Amino acid sequence: MADTKQLYQEVILDHNRKPRNWGTLPDATHQAEGVNPLCGDRLQLAVKLSDDAVEGIAFEGESCAICKASASMMTTAVKGKARSDAERLIQEFRDMATGKLDTGKEPHHLGRLTVFAGVRDLPTRVKCAILPWHTLHAAFNSMRTTSTEADADPMHEQTPGGAA
Amino acid sequence: MTAIHNAVLERPGALDVERVRADFPILKLKVNQKPLVFLDNAASSQMPQPVIDRLVKYQTSEHANIHRAVHYLSEKATSEYEAARRKAQRFINAPDEHAVIFTSGTTEGINLVAHGYGRKFIGAGDEIILTTLEHHSNIVPWQMLAEEKGARIRVVPINDRGELDVAEYKRLFNAHTKFVGVGHVSNALGTINPVKELIAIAHEHDVPVLVDGAQAAPHTRVDVQDLDCDFYAFSGHKVCGPTGIGILYGKAALLEKMQPFKGGGDMILSVTFEKTTYNTIPHKFEAGTPPIAAAIGMGAALDYLSGIGMDTIAAHETDLLDYATDQVNRMPGVRIIGTAEQKAAVVSFVVQGVHPHDVGTLLNEEGVAIRTGHHCAQPVMQRFKVPATCRASFAFYNTMSEVDALVAAIRKVQKVFG
Predict the structure, then answer these.
(1) Chain A, 18-37: which have a CB under 8 Å from a chain B CB?
(2) Fewer beta carbons within 10 Å, N or C terminal of chain B?
(3) What are the structural domains, with CATH classification, of chain B?
């Protein structure tokens, strides 16, 4: 059984209470909106790419604690990083959340983001954690909106626990 | 089925909950090392042993296809299937078993009426009245019809307690009004709508009414003749029966006039490539091999509920609702959404500063199963300006101590979120 108490640990609760990089980014070069129609999570993400690196990033929206904390910690993790490094993190985070990457045994670059590893045992909450990363991927590719249920969802096939 | 009689205390009218609970094997489960507290009955109810046994008996010794062959098993399966239809007829006091159609559930029942009645009798410029409280399944089929035909949907508003505005409902009628669809009980808030009054008003304008009874059939005595509704739909899996089966009642005169919904075997009298003659009701609407076991299982479930007594069930659930409402109201930072005067045992609530999904996940940690989300009733969420709610929905097998478990679990959520 999932130990959800482990998921709702202080670092996640703290980012939920005081999300970092919250707001808008007037000089954004890339933007996307992420929506999970099943639970109503919705966030707007703005990114400023400069020399193919994340110079600025901001988000706002309405979502559960898992989604908001994931978004907040994502922004701090990718800020200042090369786009390719950020994309590697997107991949690793998704693999961790869907149980394909065992962060305890395999090499990764997720650092403190491993606090979300427990979400793999909560199939209905996996999407909450992944949505911000999903949205970052869409922003990098200049898609204006993305949805966890969209046909064109670039990650859809790789997200188990799907549209149930 | 002595178990059902055992369920009733010597004191008439009162429910012996512990005896009832003994009939439900799933209620003995532990979730996260805690006893399961199942408060998601509005989504689907649990199945008692007599219904499980009935399904096993059917598959073990009675199964063949129905309405087909002359052999023993086919005749046995057919007679049990038709007996289940009569049980459903009695359960809702339908005047005629031919007016009782097996569907896959409430959703299919509503779609059947939207296609069979709507596509034939509703056209461009016509109006269909629905309410803000409707489940998506009583909105979307009518929207699809309206789009196809150029008809218009009119919506009855609700007040801050989650009750329909009957005066406004009356004002929506005009010469273009052709149909009314209304839920008997709101799945999201628990509001019991004054359907008898709403039906009488519609009939003054010669407008037929479909009642979505998915949330009412498990909790109250339903009498379609007393209501005088034109259509009544409900689901097997919400009345302690299997999934994949439901009932649509329709007034026979209307059913006769309607187009079949699905074409196939069993719904015809004769077929040539030039012309097909449709079967009589209800078979006209039951194309293909139905879920026979599920229908018979639902019949057993209706027997089970009737054995306890719908009035006994309703009285116990009202006690649960009153207690839960009182307990939740005492909690600072918790707000109940939907405070109608007439309510079924549903407590929809929000915890200040905590998203419903986080509440749901943490309640699950305590073994408490509730539903979180928009409950397939997004217009209700929009009306109350919340993205989602937490919903505890009770059944007759729930106890007062389970209400206490719910309240204790909500307190833990508040503690985690500080």
Answers:
(1) none
(2) C
(3) 2-47+309-417 (3.90.1150.10), 53-306 (3.40.640.10)
